[in-house]
Amino acid sequence: MLRRELARVAARGVPAERVVWSADTNPAGDHDIKSVADDGGDLWIEVKATNGREGRFTWSRSEFNLAMRERQRYVLCRVYLANTVRPVIRRIQDPIAHLLAGEMRLELNNLAAEVEPL
Questions:
Q1: Which residue of 11, 41, 49, 103 is surrounded by the most CB atoms within 10 Å?
Q2: pLDDT in tens, 30-62
C-alpha cells in the first residue's frame, strides 16, 4: 500500500518525503500512512487487510475518532486476499459519510456507555 501511495503522489509531482509510513514507528497509532491530498493538505490513510474476501475488520477507537475528525482527509484502504499475488484494494474516502449513507455498518455489540455517577 505504501508503494502505491508513493506512486500516486509522485504522479502529482509531490516529493516522496511527504508520505510517511507512520505504522512503521507507531503500530498502535491512529493511522498507517500520512500522505498528501489532491489539494496539497494532509491525508490520513488506514489500511485494513485480511486474507479472505470478508468485509469485516477491527477499527480501533483512535482510528475511528481520526476518521470522524478528518472526514474527507481520511481514507480507509480495505485490502482483500492480502496473502495472494493479486490482492484487491478498495479506497474508501470519508468512511464516516459511507456509514451515514448506510453503505457501511458498525457492529455495536460491545458498546459501553457511561453517564455521570450519582
A1: 49
A2: 999 999 999 999 999 999 999 999 888 889 989
Return the amino acid letter for 113.
A
Cell representation of residue 8: 500516486
* Contact in structure between 23 and 46 (CB atoms under 8 Å): no
Collect all residues with Cβ–Cβ distance below 8 Å to 106 and sequence separation of at least 6. 59, 99
Three-state secondary structure of the chain? CHHHHHHHHHHCCCCHHHCEEHHHHCCCCCCCEEEECCCCCEEEEEEEECCCCCCCCCCCHHHHHHHHHHHHHEEEEEEECCCCCCCEEEEEECHHHHHHCCCCCCCCCCCCCCCCCC
pLDDT at 114: 75
